[in-house]
């Protein structure tokens, strides 16, 4: 069983620095490092430039080339992660076998948690769109258009990785003015009929050849008057980048390391009352921060339900006459 590394501080300054890097109840915004491999193409560099612009200011760009091959040796990424207190990486590579290649990596405790390799099939940069751009540091809305992102294990990994990169922490409320400027729309094409939805997990690159592409689009968002109070209309204008990704390889996380990364710290009473963690029986907060509750109701007895008092619904009583041959119905009303 793998254990988390522990470092004994030498003095008070190191102790304070290590305390800031320890797991927190509410983590700080994750920093992403964009690093080039030994060989890159113009397309890869331009894609990384636009992805870096969307991530700023929580991003670091390494302009020099580095001899990095994440799937073969991840020691360089782990070194950069510990030195820069970063947990997200985008590595740009280019080769004849895998042209225009991007590798998204996540770290936990200074080690690789999981990796996702995407190939760039089509690309249009921000500069090619004559439209206004979003401000630096504004969090985007993220929309995923396909059931594959909820049922297919490979596309679920893509969704999880991209949400970690760009969505950040969940917000309780978003101001309509100045709080929303752009939307990241991610779409996957229909799955071929000869491929089972749950038949493919992480694995070899051959399993991904026939899978549909992932279309990454970014739009600026403008609120215009709709004539209804507090319900404005939304106008979208594509601002770029526009990228079509082809799924290549996925390295799934180690089970023990994933279990440790999902472990939650103990919460104080104030945090529990504010909606974090478990408050009482049948009420809890899920991983996305949404409160979920269960209601247990008694079996409903429809015979006791009070309906409207309508003349046509009243029960008519019957009275037998003195004659044995004639039955007369009498309406009590």
From TrEMBL:
Keyword Nucleus belongs to the record: yes
Methyltransferase keyword on record: no
Region (Disordered): 270-333
Record's compositionally biased regions (Basic and acidic residues): 282-302
Keywords associated with the record: Nucleus
Domain spans labelled Brix: 30-256
Tree of life domain: Eukaryota
Compartments where located: Nucleus, Nucleolus
GO CC terms of this entry: nucleolus
One GO term (biological process): maturation of LSU-rRNA from tricistronic rRNA transcript (SSU-rRNA, 5.8S rRNA, LSU-rRNA)
Biased composition, class Basic residues, residue ranges: 306-319
GO MF terms, alphabetically ordered: rRNA binding
Broad class of the protein's primary localization: nucleus
PROSITE patterns: BRIX (PS50833)
Record family assignment: Belongs to the RPF2 family.
Name recorded for this polypeptide: Ribosome production factor 2 homolog
Organism: Kwoniella dendrophila CBS 6074
């Amino acid at each position: 069983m793998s254990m988390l590394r522990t470092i004994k501080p030498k003095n008070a300054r190191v102790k304070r620095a290590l305390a800031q890097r320890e797991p927190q109840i509410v983590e700080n915004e994750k920093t992403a490092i964009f690093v080039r491999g030994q060989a890159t193409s113009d397309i890869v560099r331009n894609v990384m430039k636009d992805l870096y612009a969307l991530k700023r200011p929580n991003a670091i760009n390494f302009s020099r080339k580095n001899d990095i091959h994440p799937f073969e040796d991840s020691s360089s990424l782990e070194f950069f992660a510990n030195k820069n207190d970063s947990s997200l990486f985008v590595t740009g590579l280019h080769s004849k076998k895998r042209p225009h290649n991007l590798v998204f990596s996540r770290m936990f405790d200074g080690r690789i948690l999981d990796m996702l390799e995407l190939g760039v099939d089509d690309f249009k940069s921000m500069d090619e769109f004559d439209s206004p751009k979003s401000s630096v540091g504004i969090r985007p809305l993220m929309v995923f258009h396909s059931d594959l992102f909820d049922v297919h294990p490979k596309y679920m990994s893509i969704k999880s990785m991209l949400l970690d990169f760009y969505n950040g922490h969940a917000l309780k409320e978003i101001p309509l003015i100045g709080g929303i400027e752009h939307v990241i729309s991610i779409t996957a094409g229909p799955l071929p009929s000869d491929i089972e939805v749950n038949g493919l997990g992480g694995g070899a690159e051959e399993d991904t050849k026939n899978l549909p592409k992932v279309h990454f689009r970014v739009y600026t968002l403008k609120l215009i008057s709709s004539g209804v109070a507090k319900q404005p209309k939304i106008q979208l204008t594509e601002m770029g980048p526009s990228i079509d990704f082809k799924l290549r390889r996925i390295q799934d996380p180690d089970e023990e390391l994933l279990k440790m990364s999902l472990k939650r710290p103990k919460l104080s009473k104030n945090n529990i009352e504010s909606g974090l963690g478990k408050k009482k029986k049948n009420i809890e907060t899920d991983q996305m921060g949404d409160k979920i509750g269960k209601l247990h109701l008694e079996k409903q007895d429809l015979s006791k339900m009070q309906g409207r008092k309508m003349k046509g619904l009243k029960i008519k009583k019957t009275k037998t006459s003195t004659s044995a041959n004639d039955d007369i119905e009498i309406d009590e009303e």
